[in-house]
Predict the structure.
Amino acid sequence: MVDLWLNGFASALSPHNLLFLILGTVVGMVVGALPAVGPNFGVALMLPMTFAMPADTAIIFLAAVHAATAYGDSIASILINVPGGGGSIPACWDGHPLTRQGKGGMALALSAIASLLGGIAGWLSLVFLSPLLIAAALRIGPPEVFMIGVLALSLLAVAVQGQTVKGLIMACLGLLISFIGQDSITGFYRFTFGIGILEDGIDIIPIVVGVFALGQIFGMAQEGGTIGRLSEVGGGALEAFREVSRRTMTIVRAGLVGIWVGVLPALGIGSASVVSYMMEKRASKDPDSFGKGNPAGLISPEVAKGACVVGDLVPTFTLGIPGSPTTAILMAALVVHGLRPGVDFFKGQLPYTVFAGILLAQFAFFLIGIFTAKYWAKVVLLPNAMLVPLIGVLAAVGAFADHNRIEVMYLVALFGFLGYIMNQNHYPAAPLVLGLVLGDLIEANYNRSMLLYKGSLSWVFTRPVALTLLIITVLSLGWPYLETAYRALRGRPAETITR
Amino acid sequence: MNVKRLAALVNVDNAFLVAVGALAASFLVGSFRLNAMAAAFPKLVSAIALILVVYVLVGRIVAVLREATAVPARTRDEPAEPHDRAQSGRTIPWFLMFVFTLLYPLVVLFAGFPSSTLVFVTGVAMLLGLRGIRGLLFGALSTAVLVLLFQYVLQVPLPGGLVWEVLFRS
């Protein structure tokens, strides 16, 4: 066993593999730093370039792209408040306020350190805990998966204090949009309203890009000026190390959330980072500081995201069930290179080389991120006169690149309009996106549960895990109201819940 | 008097809610024409969405009619973040920017990616205050970098435009 590991690391560190590991990291950082293009875009784009590579090199290269893009995504979230994908949405919440306070450099270093720690935690789960975690995941049936999806949506809806109802409406809107097109179980076309292009459904990329990127630039164009001042881009790696070292429990909590969400099929980095952020906020002695530049609000989702990026690979490599959309693309890479996920994958030297490469990929993006953080931070010095047209074009072409259809650019513009309206009226966008992402999963598992129980809803109450998840969901949704009632009883000023 | 008060409810926030409610209602109605399994979950979600929208709207109407102390959401929103922009510069109204983003793909379709991007980037940059040669240089350099990045590095086949197709490929 030790020999296999030593050979694995030796092979991963061979000049050829190391070259592609670094190349994948650099490509991932570039794609990640571009606003509105995330890991799916990066890994899908690089997949055709691996055809001529040996299998281990190809997987190491794509794993490096995946990890670096997931980390790089947070750069745009932190600096210009435009997330590259669902996983880096929470990085906006406390990362961008840190930038506004002149601590952009520190926020980037926090993100790099937290992502590395998360990546190591995920890697340890991949290597040591995967048999146990998979056994647990295998016990979960459709009712539990459905309830987990509903819980993730509910947690997101209550993420913005006082906006629970608006968050729920947005989650419902996301689910409704996800219904458009062909139903994955029955094959029926639904809610296309006679418009042919809707038969394929509405893809998530134009929605994410539109709501987050264009919605943002409409506001930036209206404000003019620059995102920050030169003197505001401060802080650095040392300060970040100090902040991280003070938050051991935050790292442990977030790592566990990232691993768990990663191992559960289909729930990707978007769910991991948001759930972790919410847990951290709940656990904090100073929850009001969240959203205003609390370092824990950045460390927690970044650790969870890093852990989830690697944790996602557990069901992908062992069961052939993608842990996320990006790992589905990675699974396609395995098949392209003649590898079958499952027991066969774990035979011989290959898994040890791949696992060693995945660990090295975490250190690669960390080192590049730490040493170049100050340079990335310079982005905030660009005037809006430069950022607005550049983000506008990147958003449109990024969405176009995924489909090679110009109509997608119109969708981006329309969702940009929607995003601006939502932003101005305090409608949280994240539940909409998560509803869209989880729509298929939640509906399929709802239907499967109903089929299993012959049309009865008894599965909600007869399965202990599903019932527990339901109780947690109800409590999390009712919490803002209970808190208000409790404060009123104690004679403290009540926080009204916005309608 | 009540009419005057109710007129205060005519705002973008409520219009947005009404639009979401209308969408949910159309999904609910549409789901009755579907196979039972394909309709089950959409029915549930659209009904919940509709209930939530009606709850919020009715709550706001009742609050206005009762002259409740809680003011409508539009005016009770948290105060805007302190303005920490380094410079004010020139601005573009958001709806004009929206029109530009709608026009951009249309121009791409006819004139192709490089020329339409040059016009879009230079035009928006100039309107936002990057005047003269700086604006032109920025537009030209950005377009060149974007074309290089997408067309040659990321291998995205950028549209050449109908004009190019007709003039040079026919």
